[in-house]
Amino acid sequence: QVPVVESGGGLVQPGGSLRLSCVASVSIVGFYYMAWYRQAPGKQRELVATYTNGGSINYADSVKGRFTISRDRAKNTMYLQMNSLKPEDTAVYYCNLRGYSGSSYDYWGQGTQVTISS
């Protein structure tokens, strides 16, 4: 069973929007950190946005003002709304959930491809 699954990626023209979803199929009781990362071809994985259980939200400078991270507690789902997309946003996007519930957990999804091209 894959603990978290991303979806919502695709091919979009520059200036367009996408909303990525990350659904957790396991309990995330005790989570303290949720995040979206991305990895472009030939580059290292980079942090895009973070959300802590204390409500703290942070973004990479490259996406500030364009991306929004959010969470739907009832649906066990995390989102990344991406607006004003640029070709340099092209990457595989991954969600990451970390927490502690008896033991620590650190879940990664398999990624969803986002391609920005005209």
What does this 3D model show about the protein?
By secondary structure, this protein is mainly β. 0% of the residues lie in helices and 55% in strands. It contains no helices and 11 strands. The strands form 2 sheets. Strands 2, 4, 5, 6, 9, 10 and 11 form a 7-stranded mixed β-sheet that branches. A hairpin with a 3-residue loop joins strand 9 (91-100) and strand 10. It is globular, with a radius of gyration of 14 Å. The model has no long low-confidence stretch (mean pLDDT 94).
Any low-confidence stretches, pLDDT <50, length ≥5? none
Strand content bin: over 45%
What is the CA-CA span between the terminal residues?
37 Å
The average pLDDT value, as a whole number, equals 94
Q: What's the quick description here?
A:
The protein has 118 residues and is mostly beta strands. The protein has no helices and 11 strands.
Notable traits:
118 residues, mainly beta, seven-stranded mixed sheet, four-stranded antiparallel sheet
Layout of strands and helices, then pairs:
Layout: E1 4-7, E2 10-12, E3 18-24, E4 31-39, E5 46-52, E6 57-59, E7 67-72, E8 77-82, E9 91-100, E10 104-108, E11 112-116
Parallel strand pairs: 2-11
Antiparallel strand pairs: 1-3, 3-8, 4-5, 4-9, 5-6, 7-8, 9-10, 9-11
